[in-house]
């Protein structure tokens, strides 16, 4: 097993509760409720060419996650943006990810939620292996289906990610890049860290409708917006079964960390001709045009 602690490069800067600190030594208290109870929410925002992608969507979702758990925004959205940009600058980040976490703070361990908590806010920035992402985009990825063992509020982006990490690790053991999670009705909810899409034989793009069962992906929303501006790529937001996915013409995943990545096999069975499909490529192009507008702005 790799030891990630050893790989913190010097020179990286993190943000913790108002201070910019060397990443290698940046800490929160051992009684932090994020650590004790996963009483915390997070966001991951892509940085392309030094620019935050979908900043507003991520900030709004952070607000919704906090609100669902009766926490306040720790600072105004504009101030959050300033800190994220300062972190990008201090880390000289061109292409990568900003990670932002808000916890209910450090208190004597007690299941009961404290009133008026002093929240902990932490952010990190790291570069992305762009070549590895582009390789996945050009070659496609394998996914395996596994039971969705998560709780009833997957729409809240909490750090309670154990079912996700277990499923993704199991996928890797089976030689796949991602796991698609399956509910008790044999319907696919989403990936462990990405939304799931299929393209039917009739060329309809299908992704699960928003509910408490999935995360409202910001990339998913961007793709839906991009698809509205074109004809010939109809979308249905509804549950789809494992069987429907296995007989789909194409499939792909969407997330901040990878954008649009084609899926070429499910549970070891190739989709279509087993190569990335034309629809996934088109969706990637449309979404990239949207994000390029952010970078140029
Ligand atoms: N994951 N579904 C789940 C369960 C996720 O964790 C994510 C994001 C998504 C895609 O959402 P978005 O398009 O807003 O990134 C869907 C992030 C990248 C992560 O945990 O690293």
**Broad CATH class of the largest domain:** Alpha Beta
Order of helices and strands: EEHEEHHEEHEHEEEEHEEHEEEH
Number of helices: 8
Question: Biggest β-sheet: count, sense, barrel?
Answer: 10 strands, mixed
Oligomer kind:
single chain
Overall morphology: globular
Structural class: alpha+beta
Bound molecules: N-(5'-phosphopyridoxyl)-D-alanine
- DSSP strand count: 16
Mean pLDDT over all positions: 95
Q: Could you please describe the fold and organization of this structure?
A:
With 297 residues, the chain is α+β, with helices and mostly antiparallel strands. The chain has eight helices and 16 strands. Strands 7, 8, 9, 10, 11, 12, 13, 14, 15 and 16 form a ten-stranded mixed beta sheet that branches. A six-stranded antiparallel beta sheet has the order 2-1-6-5-3-4. Helix 6 (218-228) crosses helix 8. It is globular. The mean pLDDT is 95. The structure holds N-(5'-phosphopyridoxyl)-D-alanine.
Summarize the structure.
The chain is 30% helix and 27% strand.
List the helices and strands and how they pair.
Blueprint: E1 13-16, E2 19-22, H1 33-37, E3 40-48, E4 51-52, H2 55-68, H3 77-90, E5 96-103, E6 120-127, H4 130-139, E7 141-147, H5 162-173, E8 178-182, E9 187-191, E10 195-199, E11 205-207, H6 218-228, E12 235-237, E13 240-241, H7 242-246, E14 250-255, E15 259-266, E16 269-270, H8 278-296
Helix pairs in contact: 6-8
The structure holds N-(5'-phosphopyridoxyl)-D-alanine.
